[in-house]
Design goal:
The protein has 123 residues and is of the alpha/beta class. It is built from five helices and five strands; from the N terminus they run E-H-E-H-E-H-E-H-E-H.
Length: 123
């Protein structure tokens, strides 16, 4: 079943990760924006009504957990998938406490990323 076009914001300080996520999740009908840090992500969502946000935790200028809270104040209906290399359970729990809808560890497979994205877009 083909899904409706989505507005997706990809936030990660790694250009390679941003490109990988974009290439993996985007269909030609989707609108994708990217940001390399939390400050730029908050600026982007003021004008871009993202339905889905993928968010790294460890970034310069503003970490993902702080950005997550600010983003949800601006776009409370956005679904947020945290994608992080931090493999400690307290970080995942804190992300969910602050409003994340899912958590995926780096490195991730394209199958795992697509599954998480599909789950968030369906719910």
């Amino acid at each position: 079943m083909k899904r409706a076009p989505k507005r997706i914001l990809v936030v990660d300080d790694s250009d390679l990760i941003r490109r990988t996520i974009r290439r993996t999740v985007a269909t030609p009908e989707d609108t994708i924006e990217t940001a390399s840090n939390g400050v730029d992500a908050l600026k982007a969502v003021v004008h871009f009504d993202a339905e889905l946000v993928t968010m790294d935790i460890s970034m310069p200028l503003m970490d993902g957990l702080t950005c997550l809270e600010g983003l949800l104040k601006i776009r409370p209906n956005a679904r947020i998938l945290v994608i992080s290399a931090l493999k400690d359970k307290p970080t995942a729990v804190e992300a969910v406490k602050r409003g994340a809808h899912g958590f995926l560890l780096k490195p991730f497979s394209t199958e795992a990323l697509n599954f998480e994205i599909s789950e968030l877009l369906l719910n």
